[in-house]
Amino acid sequence: AHRLWTHRSYKATLPLQVLLLFMFSCASQTSVRLWARNHRLHHKHSDTHADPHNVNRGLFYAHIGWLMMKKHPEALAKGKTIDISDIENDPLLRFHERNILWINSLCCFILPTLAGVWLWGEGWSTAVAWQCSIRYAAAFHCEFTVNSLAHAYGYRPYNSTIPPAESWYVSLTTLGEGFHNYH
Hints:
There is one protein chain. The chain has 2 domains: 2-133, no CATH class; 148-183, no CATH class. The longest helix is centred in the last third of the chain and has 24 residues, at 124-147. Helix 2 packs across helix 8 (100-120). The protein contains 10 helices and no strands. The chain is mainly alpha-helical. 26% of the residues are buried. It is a multi-pass membrane protein.
């Protein structure tokens, strides 16, 4: 979903788009529109006040604090200038945005819980604890390490003057997203 909708780095068939949107919904982070806008803003103004998760505001802020605090006025202003018309004009993504509550609830919480009960024989309380709490929190924090740790720690073979780094330990939990100095 990241490279398809945020960066438009390839074209995908409708079945692949549906699969990617399902997997995106399993994470239940937000809508593709908001995610892509924030990520495009991050790329355009990386590690400045216009960056939604600017690591220069502190490691905690870059990791999760940006979700708890008001955005910097510069991020709000620059966010309005980011072109997301491609996302807004996509019928599949418009459907997802209109139905995000039930789609994300189904994909992120209900189906994983039912899978735990029906496929692995877990009790309901165990399935809810693991699928709705532990898995969800672990996935969020793995993703957030890209914003924080991969912008603070690691080596910088491409450009040593910018915060994004090549972080093998972040890449282990994010399937390669920790290799951030080239991103």
